[in-house]
Amino acid sequence: MISFILRRLASAVPTLFIVVTISFFLMRFAPGGPFNLERPLPPQTMANLMATYQLDQPLWRQYVHYLSNAVTGDFGPSYIYKDNNVAQLIGKGLPYSIELGLYALLFAVIGGVIAGTIAALRQNSILDFTIMSVSTLGVTVPNFVVGPVLTLVFAIGLAWLPAGGWGDGSMRYLILPMIALALPQLAVFARLTRGSMIEALHTDHIRTAKAYGLPARTVVVTHAMRGAMLPVVSYLAPCAAALLTGSAVVETIFTIPGVGRYFVLGAINRDYTLVMGTVILVAIFVIVFNLLVDILYGLLDPRVRHD
Amino acid sequence: MADTNETILAVRGLKVNFSTPDGTVDAVKGIDLDVRTGETLAVVGESGSGKSQTMMGIMGLLAKNGTVTGSARYRGQELVGLSPKALNGVRGSKITMIFQEPMTSLDPLYTIGRQIAEPIVHHRGGTFKQARARVLELLELVGIPEPGRRIDSYPHELSGGQRQRVMIAMALANEPDLLIADEPTTALDVTIQAQILDLLKSLQKRFGMAIVLITHDLGIVKHFAERVAVMRRGEVVEQGTTADIFERPQADYTKMLLAAEPSGRKAAPADNAPIILEGRDVCVDYAIGGGFFTRGNAVFRAVDKVTLRLREGQTIGVVGESGSGKSTLGRALLRLLPSSGYYRFGTTDISGFDRGQMRPLRRALQLVFQDPYGSLSPRRTVGEIITEGLHVHEPALSRADRDRRAIEALKEVGLDPASRNRYPHEFSGGQRQRIAIARAMILKPKVVILDEPTSALDRSVQGQVIELLRDLQRSHGLSYIFISHDLSVVKAMSDYVIVMKNGKIVEEGDTDGIFDAPREPYTRTLIGAAFNV
Amino acid sequence: MTDIVQTPAAAPETKGRSLFQLAAMRFKRNRAAMAGCVMLALIAVFSFLGPLFVPHTYDQVFPSYVNIGPSLEPRPDTSTLQEVMEGVATRARVTLKEFNVEGEAFTATITSEQPIDARATRYFDRANEFRDTQVVATEDEGRTLKVTGQVDREYFPFGTDSNGRDLLVRVMLGGQISIAVGLLASLVSLGIGVVYGATSGYIGGRVDNVMMRLVEIMYSLPFVFLVVVLVVFFGRSFILIFLVIGAVEWLDMARIVRGQTLALKRREFVGAAQALGLTDWQIIRRHIIPNTIGPVIVFVTVVVPKVILLESFLSFLGLGVQAPLTSWGALISEGANNIQSAPWLLIFPAIFFVLTLFSLNFVGDGLRDALDPKDR
């Protein structure tokens, strides 16, 4: 098991390296730069700025420089948020995004699996149809629609909950953004669970369990459910990585001080280092969650156990 | 032999039907059966006869669109129409089942120990811990080696035969009155099949339960059952003691089934007939494991130094169990796999030929597969399928010429030429196999490698396909390599036999010699394990 | 000659039903899926042919009608016209005595202390709402004039946006762009994914290993974000948007096709094709790709809504197609920002957007059921 984890972590290094390299050069070969503002700066100021941030050096040297710094945890200064470097920006924002994302993930997984299982067990009933219609709606309505609507109804209309901000970090502030963040994923989990559950209920070993007179609850819970969870677990990795690294949309609508906004702000402002920082952050999350999910998968399915 | 005094399962007027989008399908059309204590009743029939659905219906295991009506009484208790809850009192304790697919019938996510214990705990109470001793005892009973270790194994860690033993252990756990065995050995090799059947027989003697054996294999029935019910198209055509059915069959269908056993022998070609295909020291290796960075270091030798010479007009039968390398050998001889050794086609040394060099020779070297469902591309018409080779080998042919050849080929294999505009899924298994043969024959080959061409077919159809293959051989002077696990078919088809095990030739010789006087113990086991009608 | 005429009649060939025809039959039985199809067709007709029947263009600005709500009544309504007319009269320093609107025409009677100059009609034409004002009668020594003219009445069934553009036409245009982006990007991802997946799966071995490793690495790139970067850096043209989205959505497709190919490769008809001497490329083209079509079609119905969503996400971030062009996503984000003051800006594009995605979902589910290989 430990050797499996070490091997996987080792194979993550080249992956990260390629991700960093692709992103770095992709960005630099694009036209424009962080200081190409609408009103052009005086040439002298521009040159000074470029020199300060070493942007006047040859590209390969900048790349080597960035890599060697990044290895030591120095992801460079932000060109736009001049008071903070990239590591500090992410360090400040990440806890907010993770806390919110974690709640959303729990909500999505638990809600989705329960809804999907009910739908599968009552296949083709009104209940099934209702759950699936609602979940289709969940997948199709983008969260930048859900967000404002939630605000309008619960914050402005009914005035039950605050419209945005982190406040004291209590649940009151988190409910609306959490729902907006979780809803599409909840729908995905529900659909996945329903599909794999229906498939699991038709396998030969379920027939065996029935033929041996096991009660319906045992058949469903111990035999069908466990097998049906495998695809759900697989989806957990990309989903968790996406939720925990914050959402630009939800954080903007609810003014959450997380890292999700930096993706977009960094790109729009051509803040190279901030963009690189967020790319690396997301890539690490994806890699780590893939590993965690593979371990979990192994625990669930003896056929792919890693020993 | 068995005490036949009491009827434990009485089936009267049982009907099973399925509602499909195309209308209702009657799978079982009102049948009567009786099972008595301690006896073995065989329900025999070809695919689609409703033999399995009868039992599934009684046990409440039909697919959602299936309904069962009529009556099935277990010791007086009506099972048809019983709620699943009430049925659970009988299922798994009084009546148990084993299924055809030992690979999928067990839950892959739980240890076999837990799965065997589940019906014990459920029907008798207690904990899984308490049941463990009983599970060990059962594993011992069904002949699982090292039960103390195996009890914590997962199904994928066991072989097919062992899994079927586990299923039997599970079936015996609550000492049932009746065991329903649905094609229990169809997916297994012949030697394993014999072991499993012997095991069932000895356990039956010991515990005295009745067995309903559902099978398509008359050989098994003759050696195993006391009474037989022959089913066809959802009806029982004949019922009686095994001796009566086999010696004095009444129904035409039964007679036809009994006669369908392939018969006849093929005469060997003249000794001086030229060699058309030769493989010397054929070896095929597969790398096991190995990822992107690590080279696979373990090598599995599927075919190990096999030498084979095929003369014009000869049929060499290649016999072996699954994993013996017989199919791999066939593909290696056609140079479809990377392999080492010396190969000769006619007088041409083809050892070093690459794919491009082999291409023109392919029309003379053809291959027919086992699975008539998998070997025809489902999205092309029969005409397109059988003329595909002509595009490669006779590209100059006009459309009309190709069509004419397709008609010829279809007529030759006994199919309606009009069927060339239809799609494979519209044909039965036997017809599909004819299409596959037509695809090979249209190129007018010299050598055809037949890889289990009859194994997926019902006995009655098997005979017809064998007849066809023999006719084609006679009229075109073909040479066959006939690969099969089915000894009776090999015996009828070939004049020379090679017995393979673990990639090596165990024994070879004239068909008569091999079957009448096998020298090697393995050959003897194989022949002994095959039940003849 | 008679031969030729008779040939078709003489050969009543039994035509088989292909798997596709069977699937089509099953699909037609699925009511939800058929309803989805009809809905999609209606939405496509609405988006692409609709603009032909609406007099406004998508970039036409009506300064008099900014942010007005949806209504089936023509604009301006009679009472508003009355106000406008009174305003005109004030500007022309005349008194409005009588004002009537009948259909597209109006009549007004104006009076003044002094005789009115006929050129006062210019004041009428200056208002957006009136044109072709003419004096039809002069009374009271020129102190009372009867004028008639045309009223420009506009219909805005969906209301207008904050720039005074007709939302109906905007929604149609948004539909055109969203549907086009969805289809084109899906085609791009389909093309790349099918060829890549089929090649990787068919060749197998080390090539497959390398190709799939590449896909794995691409998976760890934060893709949505990569799209953002690409669009920000390379500009927001329509072509680029669908190319970029297509280029990031092909990974799943490649994986699905590869999986299918691996399974197909073990099927015996591929072995048969090899035994017949077909080249790899012929086998991929004739046997592998046609047999992957079922799952691929189903997957496309998943990708299209995904792409439309992704495009709308870009639009929400202000990175979609550039104004005055628009897409449903852009319209929705505009509506979300004005949700309190002008909810219709959100409601109408959202209805079409959600209906489209909903229908695609049902069609996808229907196709999955119809093409399900288990039914074969």
From TrEMBL, chain A:
A biological-process GO annotation: transmembrane transport
Cellular localisation: Cell membrane
Domain ABC transmembrane type-1 stretches: 94-297
Gene3D superfamilies the UniProt entry points to: MetI-like
Keywords in alphabetical order: Cell membrane, Membrane, Transmembrane, Transmembrane helix, Transport
Alphabetized SUPFAM superfamilies for the sequence: MetI-like (SSF161098)
Segment forming the signal sequence: none
Transmembrane segments: 12-30, 100-121, 141-161, 173-192, 232-254, 274-300
InterPro entries attached to this UniProt entry: BPD_transp_1_N, MetI-like, MetI-like_sf
Entry's Gene Ontology cellular component terms: plasma membrane
Membrane topology: Multi-pass membrane protein
Major location (coarse): membrane
Protein family (similarity comment): Belongs to the binding-protein-dependent transport system permease family.
Designated name of the protein: Oligopeptide ABC transporter permease OppB
Gene symbol of the encoding locus: oppB
Automatic annotation (TrEMBL), chain B:
Broad class of the protein's primary localization: membrane
Keywords tagged on the record: Amino-acid transport, ATP-binding, Nucleotide-binding, Transport
One Pfam family it belongs to: oligo_HPY
Any GO CC annotation of this UniProt entry: plasma membrane
Family, similarity comment: Belongs to the ABC transporter superfamily.
Official protein name in the record: ABC transporter ATP-binding protein
Domain ABC transporter positions: 11-258, 277-527
Compartments in which it is found: Cell inner membrane
GO biological process, one term: peptide transport
UniProt cross-references to InterPro entries, sorted A to Z: AAA+_ATPase (IPR003593), ABC_transp_ATP-bind (IPR050319), ABC_transporter-like_ATP-bd (IPR003439), ABC_transporter-like_CS (IPR017871), Oligopep_ABC_C (IPR013563), P-loop_NTPase (IPR027417)
Role this protein plays: Probably part of a binding-protein-dependent transport system y4tOPQRS for a peptide. Probably responsible for energy coupling to the transport system.
A Gene Ontology molecular function term of the record: ATP hydrolysis activity
PANTHER family: D,D-DIPEPTIDE TRANSPORT ATP-BINDING PROTEIN DDPF-RELATED (PTHR43776:SF7), TRANSPORT ATP-BINDING PROTEIN (PTHR43776)
Membrane topology according to the record: Peripheral membrane protein
CDD domains: ABC_NikE_OppD_transporters (cd03257)
UniProtKB/TrEMBL annotation, chain C:
Domain ABC transmembrane type-1: residue ranges: 175-364
UniProt entry keywords in alphabetical sequence: Cell inner membrane, Cell membrane, Membrane, Peptide transport, Protein transport, Transmembrane, Transmembrane helix, Transport
GO cellular component labels: plasma membrane
InterPro entries: BP-dependent_transpt_permease, MetI-like, MetI-like_sf, OppC_N
Compartment(s): Cell inner membrane; Cell membrane
Keyword Flavoprotein: no
Lipid bilayer topology: Multi-pass membrane protein
UniProt record, GO biological process: peptide transport; protein transport; transmembrane transport
Keyword Glycoprotein appears in the UniProt entry: no
Gene3D superfamilies referenced in this protein's UniProt entry, alphabetically: MetI-like (1.10.3720.10)
Regions crossing the membrane: 32-54, 177-198, 210-232, 238-257, 288-308, 344-364
SUPFAM superfamilies named among the record's database cross-references: MetI-like
UniProt-listed Pfam families: BPD_transp_1, OppC_N
CDD domains the UniProt entry points to: TM_PBP2 (cd06261)
Organism superkingdom: Bacteria
Principal subcellular localisation of the protein: membrane
Protein family: Belongs to the binding-protein-dependent transport system permease family. OppBC subfamily.
Protein name from the UniProt record: Oligopeptide transport system permease protein OppC
